[in-house]
Structure formats: C-alpha cells, structure tokens
C-alpha cells in the first residue's frame, strides 16, 4: 500500500466519527466484534445466513484442505517469479496485466477485460551515495517515487543530520547548501512516513540540496526502503532517497561527535510522460441481480524492487483466486462478484481513483467492496466500514468461518484502493491479518515469495471467497453510509 | 567467528569426551551449573572466593551503573564508526590496530605492544551476478574469502540448482560447464556452513564453472552473507559466492518449473601476497606472579562488509574495556591479566594460531583463557572447558555475580581464537549470551552498532572484568587438562 492511505485516514476517521455521533450509532463501532452489542437481525435473516454453512464449509474445506490447497501460492509464485517487480509505467507491468487477463479467461471467468487508466512513469535508473568524509563508505539507498535525479556528477555537499522536522526548523540557518539527513525515530508507519513523503519539501524550504531519509521500518538488516514522496508547490525540487536505519544512525553519531560529514549523491531518477495502463476486471455474473456487485481486490503493480509478492501480490491473488475457486465450484450468487486488480497503486492509488471516478454512476449498485493490501499473513478477520445493520450481518457471516478460527470484525476498513468508495459511503472491508512484520519487508528487495506462507494464503483466500459469496447471494441489499 | 571453529569442535568434543571417560569425571561436565554435582572445595577456598564479593560488586556496579556505564558502547562505537570494516591484509585494519595500541597507552595499560603475525590479503573487488534467463534480474551476492575471481567478462553459463551434496552427486552428469546453485536448507550454522566452505570444491569435482551458495542464515531481508571457503587439493579453483535466501529459492522454483536458467557472474576477487599484521597485547601486570596469566580476548579484524561491530567488535571491546576498567579501579591482581585483540580471525584464526604457537614455552603459565566471539547480547554465563576443580571454583565465582542475574556455566568453551589452547588443555571459557539472532547479522552489511545494546555490553564487560580479576587473584593455580 502507499503512504496516501495513512494520510487520508485521519480526515476519514474524523468524518466517520462525526457521522456516527450524528446517527447515534456509536455503540456499533467497537474494535472487536463482541462490541457490536445492538444487533437485532430478523429471525429470517439469521436463518438465511445460517443456511450458508454447508456452502461456506465446502469453500473453506476445498481451499484449505482440498483441490485448491496451495493454489493461491502456486498462482502467485508463478506470476511474481515470471514478472518480478511491476512498477507503474513499465512494460513488465503491462505484460503482467495481459497475463492475468489471459489467466482469467483460462479459468473461465466472465466479463474479463482491462479498463484503461493513465499512470505515471517514474524510472529510478542507477543511483549511489558515497560518504566522502569523515571516511569513504558506500551508503545503500533507494530513491523515492517522483524524486528528481541529479546530474551525472551528482551532488557533493556537507550533511546536516536532524531527528525531526522540529529540529530542522530550529537549525534552519545551518541547512542551506547541505544534504539533510533525517534520522527520525520509527514510531509507527502512519506517524513516521511523513519524513519520507515531505522530507524533501521541508528541507528545500531552507535551501537544502538533497534529502536522505531513514527508511520507515521498525527493523533493518541494512535494508533500504523506497516509497512515494511529493513536492510542495513552488518549492525547489531536490532529490530524495531513503537510506538504511544503520547508515542514518551512523551519520547521526558522526554528527554528534562534531565530525564534518560530506557525501556524494548520484541519482538518475526521472519522470517520463504518463502511460496507459489497465485495471484488470474479471467477474462471476450474478444470476438474479447482475448489476449489483461485490468487489474483491488488490493491486497488481508493485514497487520496482523485490517481487511485490507481499505488496500486493498476496492481496491481488487471494482476491483473484477466490473468484477462480468460486467459479470452479460452480457457485454463482444472485449478485455479481467482481475481482479487480488495480494498477499503479504505489504511485498514488492511480488506477483505483480513475476506475471509481469513471464508475460513479453505478456506485449505488455496489453491495460490498473488499480489498487486501496490508499483508496476507494468517487471517484474523476483517476491518470494516459499514452501517450497523451490515456490521451485524457480517458478524453473523463470520460465525460461519469457524474452520478458519475465530474470525473477528474491527473498524474501520484500511484499504487504499477502495478508499474513495468508503469515503462515499459504500460498505467495505479490508483483510485483517497478523501483519506485525509487514513493514520489515515493505517496499524493499525483501518483498519476495519468502514472505508468503501457502497455508496463510489458503486461509485468506477461503475468507475472501466465503464472505464475498455469501454477501453477494444474500436476499438483503446492503445500505450505504450516505 | 569463522567456520573453522565448528569444523574443529567435532574432533575436540570427541577428545574431551574420551579424556573425561578416562578420568571418571563425567559427572562434572553437565550443560548447566547445577549438574556440577561433585564439588568439594575446601572451606578455606570457599571463604577466599566469598571474600571477593565486595570487589566483584564494586566492579559490576561501577560498570553497569557507575562511572563506566555505557563506556564499552562508547569505545566500541567510536572505534567501528571511525574505521568501519577491518579485513585481514588491509591498511584500515592496521590503522585500527595502531589506534587500539594508542588507546591502550592512553588508559595506562601495561606492556602495550603489537606482536607480528603474517596474514592473508584477499580483496573482493567489485562483483555482480545477473540472471539472464528466464528473465533479466540483478542477483545480490557476496564473494567468499579466498575465492578466485572471473575474467572481466565474467562467466556466463547455465545453472543447475541442487539442495544438497547428495543431490549434486546424484546429478553429477548434469553439472559440467554449469554454475551450481546450492539451495540447501538452513539446519544450524555448524551443520549448514559446509556448503559455503566446500561447495565450490564439490561442484568443481564434477566440472562446474562456479558455485553460488545460499547464505547460511535462518533469516534474511534479501541479505547476502560472506565468509571463508577453501579449495580442495588438486581441484580446479572456481569462483564461489553466497547469494540471498530469496534468490536461491527463486532459482530453485524456476528450476522446478523446468525453466532454463542462465546467469552471468563477475568477480574481481583476488589473493595478494601475505601482509604483516599484529595481535594487540595490553596487560595489568600481576603483583605476585607476573608470569602467570589470565587472557581475555576477542578479534579486532572483521569481514569487509558492515562494521564488524558484532563480529567481533563487541567481543574485542568487552575484553579490552574490562582491563581498562580494572586498571582505572586500581585493581592489580596477583597474576597478570592480558587483553588480546586477535588479528585475521576471519581468514582462518590466523593471528591467534601464530601467537599461541610462538608462546608455547609459556603455555603452562596460563591460568585461564577467555574469549568472546559469538555475540555480546545479554549474558547468560560462561561456556567452559576445564578440569572439574576449576569448574567448581568457577561455579563459586559465578555466584558472586548475582547483580548481573543468575550467571551459569555450560561446557564446552566455544572460542575459535582460544581453540588451540583449549585443545592443549588450558582451562578456558567463552561468553555464553542470548545470541539467537547472531546469524541474522553474521558476515553481512547489517553487522553494525545497531546490533549492540549498551546495557548488554556493560553486563558482559562486568562479567569479564569480575571473572578475570578473581581468577587472576585467587591463591589457587588452575591445573591444565593434560
């Protein structure tokens, strides 16, 4: 997922909180399912949901123990091993999209097509940083998405190390002509990522010539992390890259000793004209209400490092393979289930925003939207943003999933690509999973198939398949939040 | 520490076991101190040891809470930040040795001098591996110590992936002209490192042109590990490097799919004529028996990646700073305490072997030899190889260390640099610490100050200072094992 998610959740959460207060429905928005205390589903609806137990258990059993065991891992590993990293604007991303369109046809999915989206084309090129003083040393780095590059000789300048934007401001007079190194503490991704996204702009305001930001991670094995950044308006664009926690702390210690630190930074990074990419669409068309739709989704693009197996290969493939399994099991619900593999999420939720905008007219037909983009480790349940009635139905649906363990609900949903829908009131959910190590791998060369566990992928696939099927087949149309 | 340690412990353990059976003293060699069940120290000796409690508590208190709190971390970080990696044969290693000689003089240590040792001079140079088929991809690697290089164009060849030497043998006819990739499972360092040390030789026997070995580690963030290898006699020397767990498993999956794998490997690695290096010696000369000596030690050299802060900066500095603290506290024991910072351990225990050989004549004067080279995480106690009487004394000494926790004894000692002494019967100990993540960092760019915790360093320093002081001051001369 991209940084924008976190940036956007602050106002969204505020909005949701205010809305809930207005509705007097706060009691339905606890962080654990046992806090949904005011459910009063009709006996008919309870019975209807309970009657899905045999189908749900078959979906789970076939996915976790039966014919489809390890199939998500197989599909995902074949895909990411074949294509590797799939950055926005690249031919390899388009090839991987074409592959998934073909694969969708091969497994008889319906309405298989790509929908065009205009996407950015930023290319890293080669890059290097070399500490020149107090001693010579290579500094591992990863340039940040949208960063400008340097000229061929690079930028050679003295370094100032700061630990916060506050310190940068206090020492503003020392910054001009220097490379600013941010050695900010890792608090949480949501809190700390601002240094990656805004570090260059804040440094440039005081005349810095480049910004090197400590990678946003709680753990490092000399692991640089990339990610998106953006430039403020009317601010000089200076090159920005992340360095390792190890080197950021080393430079900080050198600075604390009063040593002069001098560094050469070379980056070929460049933005090229936009390209046309595609969101991948595949469906099982509903038998009674084909225009009513449940969406299951993840993004197909990745950063240009690693394999994008975790971010977001896992999410894309539990979504896509859920649909393939339902199709293979000849399960056709009343409503349509649509798998979407979003393009260019990493460069700013680009594919999803265009798709959602272009499909505003049909938005009221969306029954439920699901996304997985925070890891596909062992599942815990779903993060949901929805009206209380929907929460209550989902709670009952989750009780059918006991073969997967005690699957829980929590609020709110956390999906970047479905965010615009959630903001518009569409009921939605993201995968809640045991992702405590997610940011160890995030946006690094370590985002490979080794992160993905076949059994966890099976469980997540079963969860997505079962929930999407039941929600798509229920007699009850989900209300929207506004 | 280097791989040879583990290779050598098998015959050593066997020898020790046979010796013990012969002595009928097996009951004294348990793995926990409470298994030393047959101790019968004289009341005088018990009283003598107990009387050290105030001195020991002062050493611990001053090191962990007082004047010297964080001093080991300060000394170590100043050192490794200044010099970085310190490979055998390099000028930077010699500079770092000179620095420690000067630093030893600065803190008034005695008999400060270097003792020459002839050391290997292997230089990595630049190196790269590029997957050419089934798709183009950079493969991170670290060439192995003593490996030959390639010519400037590198080696371009098909790849065969095997998971074991047994599989290599079974598929021997497929190997000729190929690059062998070993994707062996990680069992333990001692068990698995044979692929790194012998992989090239075994592959060359069947006509392979290069060997790429999965890094020997239980955990990776796309982290290549280096280390030593050796060539068998009369075997063609082929280039050898470690690749990441991620890439070894990727190549294995590609091979499993029947894909042709083609790779280009470039390595400038080269061995140059030996150089003269120095073991660093510093002492507090004993007041009653100056020729009788307790040694505390770690190695000053490192691999040419990372900072060598863990391997073995931590071990070297808890040893050296123990002596500096005892000196600063004006504690002069009956016997001499000698700190030794060994040179060129990583290239085959080179400095220590020469030192020990050259000092065979005085070997009988060694009271006790200590080493730390398996991490300086939180201490657990000591790994000891010694006669039962010495074990019993040490058990009593450890009971004085309660301010550090419940410090334990275990057998045998595990130190590469003191190995020749242990083999010769000198009583010795290595630091036992909570090093479960040691091999995550071992021989990588991630071996930096971030691995080292100031409080753990203080505790380990206090442990080494207290034990070495008491053992050097006791009335009792330790017997040797033979």
TrEMBL record, chains A, B:
A single GO cellular-component term from the record reads: extracellular space
Q: Which GO terms describe its biological process?
A: peptide catabolic process; proteolysis
Secretion signal span = 1-30
Question: Would the keyword Nucleotide-binding be found if you checked this record's keyword annotation?
Answer: no
Cite the InterPro entries for this sequence. CPQ, Peptidase_M28
One Pfam annotation reads Peptidase_M28
Chief localization class?
endoplasmic reticulum
Localisation: Endoplasmic reticulum; Golgi apparatus; Lysosome; Secreted
Q: What superkingdom heads the lineage?
A: Eukaryota
User: Keywords of this protein's UniProt record, alphabetized?
Assistant: Carboxypeptidase, Endoplasmic reticulum, Glycoprotein, Golgi apparatus, Hydrolase, Lysosome, Metal-binding, Metalloprotease, Protease, Secreted, Signal, Zinc, Zymogen
Q: Name one GO molecular function term.
A: metal ion binding
**Segments forming domain Peptidase M28:** 279-466
Subunit and interaction comment:
Homodimer. The monomeric form is inactive while the homodimer is active.
Q: Which family does it belong to?
A: Belongs to the peptidase M28 family.
Stored PANTHER family: CARBOXYPEPTIDASE Q, PROTEASE FAMILY M28 PLASMA GLUTAMATE CARBOXYPEPTIDASE-RELATED
User: What's the protein called, per UniProt?
Assistant: Carboxypeptidase Q
Which taxonomic lineage is given here? Eukaryota, Metazoa, Ecdysozoa, Arthropoda, Hexapoda
Q: What is the gene called? A: LOC107265934
